[in-house]
Specification:
Length: about 300
């Protein structure tokens, strides 16, 4: 009799165990293989719910020192405007801040973007160079910039000590010039991960027009790679210059440059301008806001 009772108890316990094992254990998310890539659906869902996947921004590549190069997207129209800052990192840190101000403005005023336009903003193309100067590759303030001129100048170059604005495919040379100084243009056009990331982004997305901020000369400069200024580039230059109050120029000819980004864009027939801030400290936001708004109004037509 005792053995019978024990047997019944054991069977009941086994039954409860099987019930909880089958019906109460959460199902594990399936693992799916798509074109050779394994995806954990549960992890992907968790990332989305945690805000780690954001359609309004994308990482377009990595820097030499493995920092993200991030693009931020505003609007969803078919006309694509691309704004780029920080190609010279911490040396031209005010170009990063002016683009961050543009991002804040577009986020706070989404209605300013015409329905047919999408604006993509890359605030820091050279995050390694920015990090050398301000200690971060993200948001910072002018008070984070050191007083050491040598440290600020070092931030012009990427983690491979290459001047990224000498690494594009228009008159590229390995030994390049910056004012009277000799600088590295890299081992080949697009040898650096930052310039290659931008090249890949441009070729994939084919922007309608590109605006790149530099400092310091105080002007708006058309792009050109030995084939004349594109008609649309001339309109870009005139529109931004007239609205902002900067002087417009047919080309940058203060000294000879090789491997320039906007001139490469001209070579592949994409309208592009360089906006050079007047000095290395100020964002001149009111002037640049007026230029940005004028471009948005032009492309709304």
């Amino acid at each position: 009799m005792k053995n019978t009772i024990i047997g019944v108890v054991v069977l009941v316990l086994i039954g409860f165990g099987l019930y909880f094992l089958i019906y109460k254990t959460p199902a594990k998310a399936p693992i799916v293989k798509d074109q050779g890539v394994t995806v954990d659906l549960k992890t992907e869902a968790d990332n989305q719910s945690a805000g780690q996947v954001n359609k309004d921004q994308s990482v377009i590549g990595k820097s030499m020192e493995d920092r993200d190069i991030t693009a931020y997207h505003y609007g969803d129209g078919e006309t694509k405007l691309l704004f780029v800052g920080g190609i010279h990192g911490g040396y031209e840190w005010n170009t990063v801040l002016v683009v961050y101000e543009a991002m804040d403005y577009l986020k706070a005023n989404p209605d300013v973007i015409p329905s047919n336009v999408q604006v993509t903003v890359i605030p820091v193309l050279n995050p390694d160079g920015l990090n050398k100067v301000v200690g971060t590759d993200g948001r910072f303030t002018a008070s984070d910039v050191p007083k050491s001129e040598a440290q600020v100048v070092s931030g012009r170059f990427n983690g491979n000590n290459v001047d990224l604005n000498r690494n594009f495919d228009c008159d590229w040379q390995a030994t390049a010039k910056w004012q009277t100084k000799t600088v590295s243009g890299g081992s080949a056009a697009f040898s650096e991960p930052e310039s290659l990331a931008l090249k890949n982004y441009i070729e994939t997305n084919n922007p309608t027009a590109v605006v790149v901020w530099y400092s310091a000369a105080g002007g708006v400069f058309s792009s050109n790679c030995h084939d004349g200024v594109l008609a649309q580039t001339r309109i870009l230059t005139d529109t931004f210059a007239k609205a902002s109050g900067y002087k417009g120029y047919e080309e940058f000819n203060f000294y000879e440059i090789t491997g320039d980004m906007v001139n490469w864009l001209a070579k592949i027939k994409i309208p592009a301008i360089s906006v050079l801030l007047t000095n290395h400290e100020d964002t001149e936001w009111d002037k640049n806001l007026a230029g940005i708004k004028a471009l948005l109004q032009y492309y709304a037509k």
